[in-house]
Structure formats: structure tokens, C-alpha cells
Amino acid sequence: MDLVDGMRVFVASVETGSFSGAAARLGMSPKLASKYMAELEARLGTQLLQRTTRRLGLTAAGEKLMAQAPDWLDRLEEMTGGLRETHRGLSGTLRLSAPVTFGELQVLSHVRRFRASHPDLVIDLRLSDRFVDLAAEGIDVAIRIGRLGDSALIARLLGRTSLVPVAAGAYLNRAGRPEHLDDLARHICIRDTNMRGDGAWPLTVSGQLHRIAVHGSYLVNSTRMARDLAIEGEGIALCPDYMVQADLDDGRLEQVLPEISGPQLDIHAVYLGQRRLARRTRAFLDFVAQGMAMRTGTP
């Protein structure tokens, strides 16, 4: 057994809580991960993990090793990676997480441009609208939209997006165009259940925030689906500007009540604060921050 492989299994087992989780992260079988762990303990002459039926726990020796092992592995990877990358560019695997629709429409294009300069780099892009556990799932960087909860994660502002009320001309011709904010209450509205709160739409007029209770026949958990239903004339939807700007430009959708503004949401990249960032992670953060700031106009 290579000592580095054993240390990687140890760190991944602690961070994921199981040998199966470590194996999935490292691309090996759970049986091989367990074997590497046993061989590492034999080599060091001490037990590092307490095995239970539900989860792995650290012994006193394991706690001491875990306090240093992640940083040691990161330093080793940075040192050896730096030698390879002098002539070949970044290498290794960069694990990213992003919301589904934003990832498809925005993040993927940045990822492709970034990787074009680093052909030896593997991008593991996982799209999910849930807040993934970065440590448990081995994620290097997660893109999140909206208010961040309290956590030990480090956040870097990438840009901002605004929500825009939109509808198709066919619907507005049939149901009438709202003239005042209160008119939304009598219209069919397509509600996105990913929005936090009580379901009311937070809209601003002349600098004053109003929460408008809306009603409709569709509850969806996808901004793309809300946009598609709006294009089909099913009602008014509140969608991110990155989702509907092309439709507004082409006339497939119209902005409802142009004098009002929807909430502006921050777009952050978050990552674990207790780990040294690998060169590829730092490079991607700088690249995507610059690219999104240019696109959204974030200073």
C-alpha cells in the first residue's frame, strides 16, 4: 500500500463518515478502501478509527492525524501538481456543485472555457437544487444563489441576478395587462416553490417593498419550467433575468409592470474554510468570479 493512498482513504472516510463514502469519492471499491485503512493503521501501529454499525469515529490518535493530514495531502498535491502544471496546465479533478438551471445556462459555459486552457483537468460538475454537504460529498466549490445560511463555509461574491415578472403576449391579451401591483392578485401566477418564505412575491415600487400574495394553477420547483409555462401562455411567472432575457429580447415574453423590480439575489461561490485550496480550485474561483462579474456588472 502507498502511504499517500492510505492517508487519502483516511481523510475521505472521516469527511464522509464511511468507507463507502470514501470509496465513492476516490473511485475505488469499499472493500479496497477498508483494506487501505487497515494497512495504514498497521503501518502506523495504532488504531485511527472506531468502527460502528452506523458511522466511523476518531480515536485520540486519529484526531491528531486528522488535524494535519488534510493539509499535508493538499501541500503534497500542490507541490507535485505544480511540477506537472509548469508545462501542461492544471490537472487533477475539480468537483463543482451548482443549481440545476443556473448550472446548465451559466456555469457550464464558464467551466468549458476554463477547461479549454487545461486539457489535463477533469471537471466533475454536479447539478442539484439542494444545498449539498461539501465535506461529505467531496465538493471543492459550490455555486449558490440567494441568502446564505450561517455556516463555516467561505463565500465569495460572483455576481447578482434579479427576478423579473414576465408573461406571454397571448396570456396578457386574454387576461389583460396589470396596471397596478395589486392587479397581480387577480391574475394566474406560476409559483416557483424554490422561493423561500410564504409564497408571496417580494416586489419593489419606488423603493418600497411589497409582498404580494399570488395564486395560480401551477406550483413548480424549476425556474425553467416556470419560464416554459409562461411562454405557453399559462400565466405570469417571476423568473431570474438570466433565464428570460433572451425571451424578452425576442418577444416571446413581456415584462409585466416594468416600473416594478423583483428581488436582487447574490450569487456566491462557497468552499470549505479549513482546507488549503488546491491551485486548480483557486484558479477556477478567480476565473469564474471575473467572468460572472463582467456578465452581471458586479463591481
Verbal overview:
By secondary structure, this protein is α/β, with parallel strands linked by helices. The protein folds into 2 domains: 3-67, Winged helix-like DNA-binding domain superfamily/Winged helix DNA-binding domain (Arc Repressor Mutant, subunit A, Orthogonal Bundle); 99-299, D-Maltodextrin-Binding Protein, domain 2 (3-Layer(aba) Sandwich). It is 43% helix and 26% strand. The strands form 3 sheets. Strands 3, 4, 5, 6, 7, 10, 11, 12 and 13 form a 9-stranded mixed β-sheet that branches. A two-stranded antiparallel sheet has the order 1-2. A two-stranded antiparallel ribbon has the order 8-9. The radius of gyration is 24 Å and the shape is elongated. The model has no long low-confidence stretch (mean pLDDT 86). It comes from Paracoccus niistensis. Keywords: DNA-binding, Transcription, Transcription regulation. Belongs to the LysR transcriptional regulatory family.
Write the layout of secondary structure elements.
Layout: H1 3-16, H2 19-26, H3 30-44, E1 49-51, E2 56-58, H4 60-66, H5 69-88, E3 92-98, H6 100-116, E4 121-127, H7 134-137, E5 141-145, E6 153-167, H8 169-175, E7 188-192, E8 201-205, E9 208-212, E10 215-220, H9 223-231, E11 236-240, H10 241-250, E12 254-255, E13 264-272, H11 279-296
Helix pairs in contact: 1-2, 1-3, 2-3, 6-11
CATH class type of the largest domain = Alpha Beta
Report how far the terminal alpha carbons are from each other.
50 Å
CATH architecture of the largest domain: 3-Layer(aba) Sandwich
Count of domains: 2
CATH topological fold name of the largest domain? D-Maltodextrin-Binding Protein, domain 2
Using the CA coordinates, give the radius of gyration. Answer: 24 Å
Major beta sheet, specifics? 9 strands, mixed
- Average pLDDT, all residues: 86
Succession of helices and strands: HHHEEHHEHEHEEHEEEEHEHEEH
- Helical content, roughly? 40-55%
Give the count of helical stretches.
11
Overall 3D form: elongated
- What structural class do you assign from the helix and strand content? alpha/beta
Beta strand %: 25-35%
* Structure summary, number of beta strands: 13
Q: Low-confidence stretches at least 5 residues in length (pLDDT < 50)? A: none
Protein name: LysR substrate-binding domain-containing protein
Keywords: DNA-binding, Transcription, Transcription regulation
Domain HTH lysR-type: 1-59
Family: Belongs to the LysR transcriptional regulatory family.
